[in-house]
Structures are given as structure tokens and as C-alpha cells.
């Protein structure tokens, strides 16, 4: 983790890098019904409540994830658009969620550096705690369901469903924050309140910090 940095994506240059990484990952795994061919950013990256992050290993972009804070007043996210029949009634009851989407990892580097996927999903785990939501959502293909059940104790709440624009059916799951249980098994998910604030808060200047370093090891040492 000493070689990992997180960055909230704000500049056009960084978004271009994110677009290329997403396109390579999604095209290689045939996630969408058409090839993205390097064009993998759109208006949904700039919806209210949405933040896009890149994770860097030795200063090289290796993964990315988009985090949406979903509330009854702010429902613009991929999960709600694809599963409104399930999520709108829950939002009408006042529930809130984190919806991580556009999760992509550099496959070549991931083969040499195991754990990049978990370190990226750590962002969604921290957002779930920071925003105090009822659950973290997830849209995954059926073959990835066992992974999310094993790591996050996720529960499938809808699907599989063939969604417009996707080449494969999607499953919707929900993961309430089981912090102590998950961190006991995977200490890398631990974080300090300061790290979470730096990641998800918007400073008065409107510009987030350039990079944020993971704090899991410091929490583990303190414990």
C-alpha cells in the first residue's frame, strides 16, 4: 500500500486517461453491447453527487471507480436508472445508498500486482461509512456474484436482468456496512476519518487534494 495513491478526477487530462482505461477493460471483457473504442466518459460522470476516482500504483493509473451518493432527492445513478422498479420504492422510504460504477482495472498490471481490485473497491467501502448510507449497491455480472458475497457479504436484491446497452445480464446487490467483520478479515479496508474526509469532502476552494495515501496500515498499527 506504500506504492498506492488515490486521486479524485477533475481535470480533462485525467478524464482522458480514465476513459482509455475504462475502454480497454470493458472492451476486453465485452461488458457493453458495443465497443467503446476509447470513448468511455459521458455526462453521468458529472451528475450531482458523483465523484470519479483513479488509483495509481507507482504513479501509474491502474484502476478507476465512480462513486455516486444516492438519496431520495438525488437519484441520478446507474443502478437507479437500470433497476428503478427496485430502488425507487426504497428511496421513497428514505433509504440512501452508495452506487459504485464504471469499475475498471488494468488487467496486465493486476496479474503482476494482486489486490488492485480490492484496493479500488476500498473507495466504495469508505464512502459507505463516510456518508452513513443504508447500503452500498453494486451492478455486476453473474460470474462476479460469488466474489461480492464472499468479501462483502452482499445480498442479491434483483436480477439477473438484461439491461439496455449491456452485452451480459446484470445482477443488483446491496451490502450494508459490516465494518468490523469485513475489516477483521481484510484489514486493508480500514481507514482514518481524515482519509475519508480528504477523499469525499469538497473543500471551500472547490478543488480536492491532488493525491490521498491509504491509511489502513496506520489504523492496524494503532489497534
UniProtKB/TrEMBL annotation:
Keywords: Transferase. Pfam families: FeeM. InterPro entries: Acyl_CoA_acyltransferase, FeeM_cat. Residues 17-174 form the N-acyl amino acid synthase FeeM catalytic core domain. GO terms for molecular function: transferase activity. This is Acetyltransferase.
